[in-house]
Write a sequence for this structure.
């Protein structure tokens, strides 16, 4: 029973961490400390100190708070081995990456495992040196007055935080390798699966279509699309469905969403092509940008699609070179 409760607590922690990182991503433009979020189009080393601090310290703080609550409500039997919540949390996180998000090739496993080990060691240490040696986790009024110790703890924390925040960065080269591997694998998979739908000799149109397909799948993996289907069944409200996130009033399969999505891209591509030629404008990067914006109007969205298109072109060129050598 205790381990089931630990699993539930770990899942709650996972949901909280997911919400926290998403919120930090949304407000990062308005805060002085920088939270680094993943972007396909990013081509530089990024500071990940805040990410590291969150990944290592929040699970430790979480079990301390939970233990304090359990002491307060006289559920001390649940506190035994509560550090297991941290371990279970990381397993839930990794299962989500592997099987629900399917982003195994994008993830920096080496760094994440190291941070998980550090966080687990801290959790175990805090458990044996603090949590089980007291029945009052939360400070009393008298203890709060002990400002000297509080000041010392804050000082040490700030020193450690600043050193980690200023010195820990992602390695651009390693991240580029992971992104290339992920995009290449997904592109070849989707090309094999949907080439009968995205069937065109226009390479540019094909690259745009596969790039949008790949990015929409990244944003809404299979499991989360399933939740959207369930939500639609109960609400019956028009929503974005399928792998290409096409707005629909009826249930549609992923294959149907690819047909609808490709039709939208194809129609807009040739409509804009006529318009550009009529206006004597070159079919350059601005033309492609406008085609992408007809599907999803956003500066970041366009940047991500352009990056994926660049990788897909490399994959196609490599395949062409291999075929030439074989022939």
């Amino acid at each position: 029973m205790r381990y089931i409760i630990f699993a539930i607590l770990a899942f709650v922690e996972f949901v909280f961490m997911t919400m926290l990182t998403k919120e930090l991503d949304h407000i990062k433009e308005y805060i002085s400390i920088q939270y680094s979020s993943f972007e396909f189009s990013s081509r530089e080393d990024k500071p990940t100190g805040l990410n590291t601090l969150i990944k290592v310290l929040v699970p430790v703080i979480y079990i301390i708070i939970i233990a304090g609550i359990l002491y307060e409500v006289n559920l001390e039997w649940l506190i035994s081995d509560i550090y297991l919540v941290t371990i279970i949390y990381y397993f839930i996180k990794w299962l989500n990456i592997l099987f629900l998000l399917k982003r195994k090739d994008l993830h920096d496993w080496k760094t994440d495992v190291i941070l998980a080990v550090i966080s687990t060691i801290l959790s175990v240490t805090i458990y044996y040196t603090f949590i089980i040696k007291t029945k009052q986790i939360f400070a009393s009024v008298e203890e709060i007055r002990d400002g000297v110790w509080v000041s010392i703890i804050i000082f040490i924390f700030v020193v450690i935080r600043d050193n980690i925040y200023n010195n820990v960065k992602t390695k651009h080269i390693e991240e580029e390798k992971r992104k290339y591997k992920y995009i290449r694998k997904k592109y070849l998979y989707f090309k094999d699966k949907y080439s009968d739908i995205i069937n065109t000799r226009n390479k540019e149109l094909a690259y745009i279509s596969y790039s949008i397909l790949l990015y929409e799948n990244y944003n809404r993996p299979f499991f989360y699309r399933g939740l959207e289907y369930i939500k639609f069944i109960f609400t019956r409200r028009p929503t974005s469905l399928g792998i290409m996130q096409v707005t629909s009033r009826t249930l549609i399969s992923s294959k149907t969403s690819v047909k609808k999505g490709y039709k939208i891209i194809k129609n807009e591509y040739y409509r804009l092509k006529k318009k550009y030629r009529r206006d004597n404008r070159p079919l350059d990067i601005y033309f492609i940008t406008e085609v992408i914006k007809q599907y999803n109007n956003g500066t970041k969205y366009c940047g991500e699609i352009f990056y994926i298109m660049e990788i897909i072109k490399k994959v196609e060129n490599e395949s062409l070179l291999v075929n030439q050598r074989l022939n």
Remarks:
- Strands lie at 239-241, 246-248.
- The longest helix spans residues 299-326.
- The chain has twelve helices and two strands.
- The mean pLDDT is 86.
